[in-house]
Amino acid sequence: MAARTQTAPAGRVPLMAGNWKMNLDHLQGTHLVQKLDWTLKDAKHDHAAVEVAVLPPFTDLRSVQTLVEGDQLELKYGAQDLSPHTSGAYTGDISGAFLAKLGCTYVAVGHSERRDGHGETDEVVAAKVKAAYAHGLTPILCCGEGLEVRREGGQVAHVVAQLRAALDGVTPEQAASVVIAYEPIWAIGTGEVATPDDAQEVCAAIRSLLAELYGADIADGVRVLYGGSVKANNVAAIMAQEDVDGALVGGASIDPAEFASICRYRDHLATS
């Protein structure tokens, strides 16, 4: 049976964002972007219909910028994190001002690996969201629950609480451009499996929260991504969900052929 087609408003252009994590040096990153661009061009990919972005490590960004701008590629790019501070004695931090100077469009904020591995609190995530907006960057605001929360049935309440905290002080004008990425942490590397219905349940709750905070018009325009082990063989079913507008792709994004296939998810709809 064919997957049902997505019914999102026309204004919500699907976004496929590849999070490379701590993989690929600047030379490898350049080669990956070249291969990804070639693969998408060979498939006559329409970037206006499905936006494609990559989030390389900080040290790769200048090389990616040079390639994208020099060859006038349609790919977007961004960073995996930023400092809540603009400048100063913050050893190891990267300012949003630096990312903006490198031409970044996006920056991931509050990824589960930052929250869990680096102890980032909701307050830190909220400060980083504000820093992104201060420097003209679009935050990809990540949220998600662990296995214990999921088993107790608290996933919606947990994610809603994370987003309320992260969006505190964000204006309606700013919220209109935010991208939300839902990560079912419980289904990543645990042996548990997240279904498209699992994704829809939480993504719909996210949109309901946005409507409560900012009104239905803004909520209907915000893109909500799914970030749970997305691959070419499951993306069509995920994207068929009404409130899923794209994917934050991890490991599969450093395989240019696989990521390109994910970006061309509409090609899979007829056979899903």
Automatic annotation (TrEMBL):
It is an enzyme of class 5 (isomerase). Substrate binds at N19, W20, K21, G189, S229, G250, G251. Its EC number is 5.3.1.1. One of its GO terms (cellular component) is cytosol. It is found in: Cytoplasm. It catalyses: D-glyceraldehyde 3-phosphate = dihydroxyacetone phosphate. GO terms for molecular function: triose-phosphate isomerase activity. Pathway: Carbohydrate biosynthesis; gluconeogenesis; Carbohydrate degradation; glycolysis; D-glyceraldehyde 3-phosphate from glycerone phosphate: step 1/1. GO terms for biological process: gluconeogenesis; glyceraldehyde-3-phosphate biosynthetic process; glycerol catabolic process; glycolytic process. Keywords: Cytoplasm, Gluconeogenesis, Glycolysis, Isomerase. The active site is at H111, E183. PANTHER family: TRIOSEPHOSPHATE ISOMERASE. Belongs to the triosephosphate isomerase family. NCBIfam families: tim. Involved in the gluconeogenesis. Catalyzes stereospecifically the conversion of dihydroxyacetone phosphate (DHAP) to D-glyceraldehyde-3-phosphate (G3P). Homodimer. This is Triosephosphate isomerase. It comes from Terracoccus luteus. The lineage of its organism: Bacteria, Bacillati, Actinomycetota, Actinomycetes, Micrococcales.
